[in-house]
Each structure stands twice: as C-alpha cells, then as structure tokens.
C-alpha cells in the first residue's frame, strides 16, 4: 500500500489523494504482487463550499388602480400680429344735460292763528253781566274774579312809568311789565291778584271786535298797537336813525315772538296772528303794504 503524500491546495480547496486497493485479488502487503503493479489510483478533489441561506419574504403591497382617460383637446394656434397698432385716445363723451323741470310752486300755507286762552265764560260773558268786575280800573290791587274780570285789559295812559304785575295765590310773581303805557295785559282765570301802577285807566277789551281803525295804516310812533285793530298786518319800515331802536312782536299772553334792538331804519313784518307790536326809539314807522 502506498503512502499518502500531501498535495498542494488549489483555490483554497483541500485535495486529498486517496489510494485505494488496486485489485481485490491483491494479497497482503508483505507478499509481493506483480499483478498489483502498476496500481490504479483514483484522485478525488474535495472543495470547501460556503452555503449562504437565502430567506424570501413575501409582502402584500396595495395597488391603487390608475385609470387613464384620454380627452381630445383641440388647440387653435393664436396668430401673432406682426405690427400691433397703438390705440388712439378715445374721446370723452359729455352726456347731454337733462333739463330739470321747473317745480310747481306750492300753495302758500295757511297760517293758523295761535290758540288763545279761553277765559271763564261764566265771568266774562258780557260787560253788563260782569258789572263792576269789567268796569274801568286805575292804580291798585284787584282780586281776580272778585274785583276784576279775567280777560284782556288795555292801558289808555301815556308815559314810560307804567307797571303791572300778575300774582299767584302765594303772592309769587307770574308776569310783569315796566315801561311805556298803552299796552295790554291778559288776566288769566287762574291768577289770584293783579297790580296796576302808573298806567292810566284800564279798560276791558276781551270782547272787542277785531275791526281796523281808520288810522291803522297811518305812520306809527313809539308805543303798543293791537294787530288788526290799531295797526294793520303787513310790512312796516322804520324811518329813524337811532342806534337803540327796539321793536317786538307779542302774542296774546305777552310772550315775545320776535324782537330787535340796534340800528333803526329796518323793517318788521307784522303777521295777522300777532296780537300786539311794540315800538321804541325807532323814529316813525311807515306802512309798506302786505
């Protein structure tokens, strides 16, 4: 049996030489066997192989279905002009003005006279029924309804020292006047007492008819004038040149409706609804008409 001799390793593989018995008929090693020579040798190459384990993993991936829809699109090419003209200025058109219709003048509103306080008819029916209550009064104090009748009383005196006053039942002052005589005072049924001083005689004019006097449009000087009786309604002009001219328009309760103080020479419109007008230091007043 032949001894094993080492063989070189090729490519990292171990080569072993195996000597197998040549023939089955060969005898023991001590006995030469010519039949065994030459001996048949089988060479087996053994290679060391590295095995890598491969693991296959199966994953379910959701697939979104994509649908392609083909839409035909017609593309019209836009021609590019070679020369674009510059636009000229567009003229501004001025609209034709619309003719405004002339408004129809409305009617002049009817002036309603201010309501005057109605006196107690039981006391002021007539001067005869009232007797002494409606009789002429001079300076003094008079109890309303006892000594003097309610209603309008007019002073017939002259001068600038006329004083009158109306009092309540607690002697409180309700209204008064100091200045020129010739005006009126409206004594109310609710007044308690009346005082007259320096105004001349007082006459009861509550039931006097509103009839224009013959000289109602004649020039007027300083003083009080009852509208519709002593002075005509309309426009009046002052002819004076003073700087302390004063005029006022009064209602039936001696309340001031309008007034003026300053230069003379102006005008005042006396309205039919006024009860009284007062002039002072304005010179003479001339009537200009309605």
Strand order in the sheet with the most strands: 3-8-5-6
Structural class: mainly beta
How many individual helices?
A: 2
Q: Report the β-strand fraction as a percent range.
A: 25-35%
* Rg over alpha carbons: 70 Å
Number of strands: 16
Main β sheet profile: 4 strands, antiparallel
- The SSE string, one letter per element, is EEHHEEEEEEEEEEEEEE
Distance between the termini: 174 Å
Share of helix among residues?
Answer: under 10%
Mean pLDDT: 75
Q: Extract low-pLDDT stretches.
A: 1-28, 105-117, 120-125
Shape: globular
What can be said about this structure in brief?
By secondary structure, this protein is an all-beta fold.
Write structural notes for this entry.
The chain is mainly β and about 290 residues long. It has two helices and 16 strands. The protein has helices spanning about 120-125, 125-130, and strands spanning about 15-20, 40-45, 140-145, 150-155, 160-165, 175-180, 185, 195, 200-205, 225, 235-240, 245-250, 255-260, 265-270, 275-280, 285-290. A four-stranded antiparallel beta sheet has the order 3-8-5-6, with no helix packed on it. β12 (about 245-250) and β13 (about 255-260) form a beta hairpin. The model is unreliable at about 1-30, about 105-115 and about 120-125 (pLDDT under 50).
């Amino acid at each position: 049996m032949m001894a094993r001799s080492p063989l070189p390793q090729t490519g990292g593989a171990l080569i072993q030489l195996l000597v197998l018995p040549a023939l089955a008929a060969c005898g023991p090693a001590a006995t030469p066997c010519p039949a065994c020579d030459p001996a048949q040798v089988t060479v087996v190459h053994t290679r060391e192989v590295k095995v890598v384990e491969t693991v296959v993993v199966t994953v379910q991936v959701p697939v979104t279905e994509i649908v392609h829809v083909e839409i035909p699109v017609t593309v019209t090419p836009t021609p590019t002009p070679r020369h674009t003209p510059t636009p000229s200025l567009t003229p501004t058109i001025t609209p034709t003005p619309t003719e405004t219709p002339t408004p129809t003048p409305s009617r002049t509103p009817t002036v309603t006279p201010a309501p005057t306080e109605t006196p107690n008819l039981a006391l002021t029916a007539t001067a005869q029924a009232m007797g002494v209550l409606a009789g002429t009064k001079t300076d003094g104090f008079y109890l309303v309804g006892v000594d003097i009748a309610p209603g309008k009383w007019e002073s017939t005196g002259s001068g600038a020292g006329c004083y009158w006053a109306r009092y309540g039942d607690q002697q409180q002052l309700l209204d008064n006047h100091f200045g020129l005589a010739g005006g009126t005072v409206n004594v109310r049924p609710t007044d308690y007492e009346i005082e007259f001083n320096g105004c001349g005689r007082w006459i009861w004019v509550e039931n006097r008819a509103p009839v224009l006097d013959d000289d109602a449009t004649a020039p007027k000087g300083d003083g009080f004038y009852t509208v519709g009786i002593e002075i005509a309604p309309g426009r009046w002009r002052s002819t004076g040149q003073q700087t302390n001219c004063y005029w006022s328009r009064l209602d039936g309760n001696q309340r001031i409706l309008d007034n003026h103080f300053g230069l003379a020479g102006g005008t005042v419109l006396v309205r039919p609804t006024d009860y009284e007008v007062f002039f002072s230091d304005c010179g003479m007043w001339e009537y200009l008409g309605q």
